[in-house]
Amino acid sequence: MAHGGAARTTRAARSTGMAGASGAEPRPDWDDLRYFLEVARTQRVSAAALRLGVDHTTVSRRVRALEQALGTLLFDKSRNAGFALTPEGQQLLVHAEQMETALQSACEQVAGLGQTLSGHVRIGSTEAFGTYFVTPVLSRFQREYPAIDFDVLPVPRFVSLSKREADLAITIERPQRGPYVCSKLCDYRLQLYATPGYLAQYGDVSTFADLTGRRFISYVDELSFSNELRYLEDIVPGCNVVLRSTSVIAQYQAALQGEALAVLPCFMAAQDPRLVPLLVDDVVVTRSFWIYCHEELRTLKRITVLWDYLRDAAQRNDALLQGKAGQLLLT
């Protein structure tokens, strides 16, 4: 009888994750929260392991240890959906992110203003702007702040700050909801471009009538991540699009081949002498970039300094953004 009672006690303790020799309430290892945060953001143990620089078994073990210490399930696991947060996991995520931000802020304050500003920042941006503007600007920024390192994500989609894919995001649509601090970074212009070789072979374009029968390059409409990208049909209704791509850089490369016309951002195309803007006074497409981050991160010194640096760089390069200059100014 005594043996059976001990077995039942062990099973009960194991099911709640609170077994202990002394019966005292267990305390979670707060370092396990780092592993929890990465799994919550990536929804994959393998992806979390890659970001943390450990093997996937370590991540699984640390998450299990946290669940056992808290006596609750933090993730629902499935082969298709990956690791989805349970209601308890969602509650913990809010507090864990606040703790993460508080720790980062405390480290900055303890380091003191006299110390070199340091840390890591991940920036998500639209593909062309991240490649042709943000990346060279950051390279210059690091001359002033060499102890800050970056991940740059120039992708043809929206970057999710809710999943912490990035600390700072630059996008073509202002976020409609969420705990974010957001500001307009700049306006930018897009123009119709061709190569001199195209114009020599297929004829000049001096009026809208000259666009009749021309071949164009554009986005795959049903795969465009924003309606802000659907401007070609407004410029040339019913035009003949012969090449479509979800990537504006791919469209740019296609335009360089001299077989079709493309609407491209001036900050990218105006820097390339192989492209000529067409109908400059008639084709006017203006869009905006927005910069935003989690409201807790906005108080971090490295985020504040970078935010201001990017705004200054955008103001300094307004002529390039508007298609009135052909060179990016870094100083």
From TrEMBL:
<dbReference type="GO" id="GO:0043565">
    <property type="term" value="F:sequence-specific DNA binding"/>
</dbReference>
<dbReference type="InterPro" id="IPR036390">
    <property type="entry name" value="WH_DNA-bd_sf"/>
</dbReference>
<keyword id="KW-0804">Transcription</keyword>
<protein>
    <submittedName>
        <fullName>LysR family transcriptional regulator</fullName>
    </submittedName>
</protein>
<dbReference type="InterPro" id="IPR000847">
    <property type="entry name" value="LysR_HTH_N"/>
</dbReference>
<feature type="region of interest" description="Disordered">
    <location>
        <begin position="1"/>
        <end position="26"/>
    </location>
</feature>
<feature type="compositionally biased region" description="Low complexity">
    <location>
        <begin position="1"/>
        <end position="24"/>
    </location>
</feature>
<feature type="domain" description="HTH lysR-type">
    <location>
        <begin position="28"/>
        <end position="86"/>
    </location>
</feature>
<dbReference type="GO" id="GO:0003700">
    <property type="term" value="F:DNA-binding transcription factor activity"/>
</dbReference>
<dbReference type="Pfam" id="PF00126">
    <property type="entry name" value="HTH_1"/>
</dbReference>
<dbReference type="InterPro" id="IPR058163">
    <property type="entry name" value="LysR-type_TF_proteobact-type"/>
</dbReference>
<dbReference type="Pfam" id="PF03466">
    <property type="entry name" value="LysR_substrate"/>
</dbReference>
<dbReference type="InterPro" id="IPR036388">
    <property type="entry name" value="WH-like_DNA-bd_sf"/>
</dbReference>
<dbReference type="GO" id="GO:0006351">
    <property type="term" value="P:DNA-templated transcription"/>
</dbReference>
<dbReference type="InterPro" id="IPR005119">
    <property type="entry name" value="LysR_subst-bd"/>
</dbReference>
<comment type="similarity">
    <text>Belongs to the LysR transcriptional regulatory family.</text>
</comment>
<keyword id="KW-0238">DNA-binding</keyword>
<keyword id="KW-0805">Transcription regulation</keyword>
